[in-house]
Amino acid sequence: MLGHRYTHSFVETAVASVNAGCNLELSYGLRNNVFMHIPQALAMGNITLQTLRDRVRPLFYTRMRLGEFDPPAMNPYSSLDLSVVQSPEHRNLSLEAAVKSFVLLKNVRGTLPLRAQDLPGQHLAVVGPFADNPWVLFGDYAPVPEPQYIYTPRRGLQVLGANVSFTAGCSEPRCQRYSRAELVRVVRAADVVLVCLGTGVDVETEARDRRDLSLPGHQLELLQDAVQ
């Protein structure tokens, strides 16, 4: 509300929020957040003690139901570690979810699927800023992944035994610096070319909007050069 100029101070924002029914503030990284000014608003008479009690009661009731105050031994998730999370059963389920989440917009001349048994006889070029950069493959609010479990397009194809050549063309999604000569060299020698493009949280995320849907930087030029 403060950022949209609906209010003019943290105290005024706290008053408006609490009186409107809000009982939880997301204030990551802020020590002096909005709700820290509730005592001041209470002393000024802008919020009543009964209103605060009404806001706090459902919040803590929900936390108690979720088991936040239970001893760790009572929490069935406390015993889970990577041996469970990264078990073959769970990894296969993750693979199934990834496969079923793909959206194929066009498949000219049956180019896809690339069959594993055919890959060793083909020369693949994997290009683009998303081809072999594990840290740009995760969106906003994603967990911090373990590096050994991240498979970039380049790494995944190499695991399948494919003969892979690689160039990013540009080192990061903003693609401000683009090496066309290197891209052309890699693409010309390939039977199949996979171009990996996108945005990533460096380009767009919560509170970082864009004016259009264009590929950032030189990414469109990179794609056009690969096709040409």
TrEMBL record:
Residues 103-226 form the Glycoside hydrolase family 3 C-terminal domain. The keyword Ribosomal protein does not apply. Keywords: Glycosidase, Hydrolase. GO terms for biological process: arabinan catabolic process; xylan catabolic process. InterPro entries: BXL (IPR044993), GH (IPR017853), Glyco_hydro_3_C (IPR002772), Glyco_hydro_3_C_sf (IPR036881), Glyco_hydro_3_N_sf (IPR036962). This is XYL2 arabinofuranosidase. GO terms for molecular function: alpha-L-arabinofuranosidase activity; xylan 1,4-beta-xylosidase activity. The keyword Iron-sulfur does not apply. It comes from the Eukaryota.
